[in-house]
Design goal:
With about 600 residues, this protein is α/β, with parallel strands linked by helices. Helix content is about 45%, strand content about 20%. Strand 11 and strand 12 form a beta hairpin. About 30% of the residues are buried. The protein binds adenosine-5'-triphosphate and magnesium ion (MG).
Length: about 600
């Protein structure tokens, strides 16, 4: 090759190299651009997938004026929008959950087979179950068998109906095994395509039911108490006349008169009737209790003579009385009633015979004693135990035996008032009762009565042994019931007193104004027309404070007694005999 040719060929090849280099650069640039675009497309795709799976955090990170950049921007906008909608939805969901969880009502859904689907989050604190524990289980598993039929009918009725019907009450099993009373309504979501066939809203009405039943019980007892108290009141007036006239006749008859025996029978029968009205009054809490220091041993020894007659020959009576027994402050007649009611129950529990035990003991309940409770505060007690070897008490009914009218005896044999009376009296004294019994192994009733520290009781001479005391004072006798007034007048005159009679409070004030001489005592009934005994006493306290007042009543609730009885007044429970009246009058006059 010639140098010229060589020299001429050089610019040509330089040009070619230039083109080649340019093409190479273009190729590299193209490859780079395609690669970058592929990476951006890949990133956009993975961001889109992430959004689709629900992770809306961050953006695609792709920018640029090209189509990919514009697309990425649109996808980012969509994700942002979704983020805000999802956030709002989640907030709303939380709000509904909060409503359901903190509401007291339980919401359940049932499918067409009456299986539970959804259960609201309030379920655990209303019925103990977690929603998972009840899900897919038939509703019937939780319903009380006695309510199952009514619930089934209500469910079917709810599906037929549109809207809410009347609520239905039924018992639902709590996870702890107890029954809770629910009141529920069901609603059928007609257009709903899901398996939810019925939406049930239920409310726990157990506390309301308990309160209602307590209120009903209290109202029943109040009405019955009023009725019983009213009957006892009238009865006591009649008994005062019967006992009174019998005692006046006995007084007139000679000691060997053959009619004495008949009169004694009348007197005894009226005493039994009086004991019965005392029972009614104690039960209706309308008895004025007259507490005094009582030695329970002496009281039981007095009763012991009567007990064998009461319980029959097949029952052996064993008494174990603590000789060092302390004293209690209680109304002895009420204590007698407690013992007699327990003894009669023991007898009834031993139709085939057995052993009746009456025990007394001193017992101290210490601070750390397991028996100590608000019902049995620590302190010294006198414990009376009446036990038997009879049928025993079924544990199922032990909680009910103190309820008024609870009896397992056939109609006519028991009223179910015995133990409720015992309970009322023991509570009034501030005591406590415990029952220890097993079926077939008898029952022990242990009664704790607070000890009256430092008191002693001497056995009193029998009052009937002494003749009734006499007097010559003037007494104003106020009583609306004529038979009682006439009897009391006779009885008082017989003992030497001068008696002014009045039919009610207003009448009494007139008699007082008319009477020129002194009046030493006013004996007045409590419940009277025109002006009650309490009102009369208040008027007298202003006008003649020196005159003592002796109230008598066959019925007196604590309030009347409390309002009426002042410092210079005393109380006489009807019925009373001429002897008791004479002693009481002398006691008040001094
Ligand atoms: N000692 C006992 N042994 C077995 N069961 C008893 C005993 N004491 C009471 N009960 C049961 O408690 C129930 C209620 O007793 P409560 O004395 O209140 O009424 P009652 O004896 O049936 O009737 P009432 O005393 O009015 O005549 C009884 O019916 C009986 O079932
Ligand atoms: Mg009884």
């Amino acid at each position: 090759m010639s140098p010229v040719a060589i020299a001429a060929g050089a610019p040509e090849s330089g040009y070619t190299y230039g083109i080649l280099a340019f093409l190479l650069v273009c190729l590299v640039a193209w490859i780079y651009r395609e690669r970058t675009r592929a990476i951006r497309a890949e990133r956009l795709l993975s961001a889109t997938r992430r959004f689709a799976l629900g992770d809306l955090t961050g953006g695609s990170g792709i920018r640029g004026p090209d189509e990919l950049g514009v697309l990425a921007d649109a996808v980012d906008q969509m994700a942002k929008q979704l983020r805000s909608v999802t956030g709002a939805l989640r907030g709303r969901q939380e709000w509904f959950r909060m409503l359901l969880e903190h509401g007291s009502d339980v919401i359940l859904t049932l499918d067409a087979q009456w299986q539970i689907g959804f259960a609201g989050p309030s379920l655990p604190h209303v019925l103990g179950w977690t929603p998972d524990q009840v899900a897919r289980r038939p509703l019937a598993e939780f319903i009380h068998p006695n309510d199952a039929e009514a619930v089934q009918a209500a469910l079917e009725g709810a599906v037929m109906r549109s809207g809410f019907g009347e609520p239905i009450a039924f018992r639902f099993r709590h996870s702890d095994g107890s029954w809770r009373s629910l009141e529920a309504v069901g609603n059928h979501p007609r257009d709903w395509p899901g398996p939810e066939h019925l939406i049930v809203t239920a409310r726990d009405i157990t506390p309301r039911e308990r309160l209602e039943s307590q209120l009903r019980q209290a109202q029943k007892m109040e009405a019955l108490g009023r009725f019983a108290g009213g009957v006892a009141h009238d009865f006591n007036n009649l008994l005062t006349a019967i006992q009174g006239y019998a005692s006046l006749l006995l007084f007139d008859l000679g000691p060997i008169d053959p009619r004495r025996e008949d009169l004694e029978e009348i007197r005894k029968a009226s005493e039994r009737a009086a004991a019965l009205t005392r029972q009614i009054l104690a039960f209706s809490h309308r008895q004025v209790s007259e507490p005094e220091p009582v030695d329970l041993n002496l009281l039981i020894e007095d009763l012991e003579r009567m007990i064998p007659r009461l319980i029959g020959e097949d029952v052996a009576v064993v008494t174990a009385l603590d000789p060092g027994l302390g004293v209690v402050n209680a109304d002895p007649r009420q204590l007698e009633q407690v013992i007699m009611n327990l003894v009669v129950n023991a007898r009834d529990a031993m139709p085939e015979g057995g052993r009746l035990t009456i025990e007394t003991a001193n017992e101290a309940v210490a601070e750390d004693d397991p028996r100590a409770s608000p019902d049995l505060p620590p302190g010294p007690y006198i414990v009376l135990t009446v036990g038997d070897t009879g049928t025993g008490i079924d544990p199922e009914i032990q909680a009910n035996i103190f309820d008024p009218f609870f009896t397992t005896k056939e109609p006519g044999r028991g009223t179910g008032l015995g133990l409720s009376t015992v309970y009322g009296i023991v509570k009034q004294i501030g005591g406590h009762i415990e029952v220890d019994s097993e079926l077939g192994r008898g029952a022990d009733f242990r009664i704790y009565l607070p000890e009256l520290p430092g008191a002693r009781v001497e056995r009193a001479a029998r009052p009937a042994a002494l003749p009734a005391p006499r007097g010559s004072e003037t007494i104003l006798l106020v009583e609306d019931e004529e038979s009682v007034r006439v009897f009391a007048n006779k009885a008082l005159e017989k003992q030497g007193y001068t008696v002014l009679e009045a039919r009610h409070g207003r009448d009494a004030l007139m008699r007082l104004a008319e009477h020129a001489g002194p009046v030493h005592l006013v004996i007045t009934d409590m419940v009277m027309p025109e002006m009650s005994g309490g009102e009369l006493a208040r008027r007298l306290a202003g006008e003649r404070p020196e005159v003592p007042v002796l109230f008598m009543s066959g019925y007196s609730d604590g309030e009347i007694a409390h309002r009426g009885l002042g410092a210079t007044s005393a109380y006489l429970q009807k019925p009373f005999t001429s002897d008791v009246l004479a002693r009481k009058v002398r006691e008040v006059l001094g």
